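Problem: given the chain below (297 residues), write out its structure.
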Amino acid sequence: MPAYSAQDQNNQQNSQLQEEDWTLIIRPQSSLFDLQLAEVWRYRDLMLLFVRRDFVTFYKQTILGPLWFFLQPILTTIIFTFVFGRVANLSTDGIPHVVFYLSGIVLWNYFAECVNKTSGTFTQNANLFGKVYFPRIVLPLSIVMSNLLRLGVQLLLFIGVWVYFFAKGAEVAINAHALLFPVLILIMAALGLGLGMIISSMTTKYRDLTFLITFGVQLAMYASPVIYPISSLDGDIRMLIMANPMTAIIETFRYGFLGEGTFSWALLGYSAGFSIVALYIGTIIFNKVQRSFMDTV
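Solution.
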């Protein structure tokens, strides 16, 4: 009997499948670090359906509907202005309190929503995953995209507030660093997606993380310059806050749109590198867990 190699057997199987004219052929993944971009593109219509579902269900069966996209950051800004601006009298680098807090809240909301919702991918969609096939990574990607819509809506609110204070003579001038905004969005999306996929993979076995994640993300906001500028810190606390990858993103956004803040290419490069590593590790763990998570969920 001739000895056939594994490659010859795979080629023979592929030829047989092509001869049978199947409309869909599902093969096991060959690499853990595979974003399945070709498969994601094939299922782009499904991903858009998930994006629409996430966007619509946010305000479905609510009285105020889409107004909640504006009300959430407005109410949070009012509370922060009263508590941290008036009572605690924290520095805002001379920027009006409302503009300062709103700039941090809008960015933090996007990151927090990406992490919180992506972290429930496996546990919240186990029934769907068990019935039909589609690239599992479509779901976390759709969450990141649907949150982009919310970010766009809330940015309109920020621009409206910025124009109001600019017209009143406040020193909130835009400079060329505002052009880095798309880069900041990419870094935040990669960071939120990567961390979310890591947590989602871990919650299939350790459900305690489900209860800790929302609480942990809320606490992490206070370790980010959302309610204070990095210039008001010094010593070990400043170094600790600068180690947070969200710090450079928020500070660069304020530096570009408000003319105040701390900008550093090295710090921004650190955030980008941290996000790439998080996305790399998240993709590996997600691809590994998706092969067998139905046995544990």
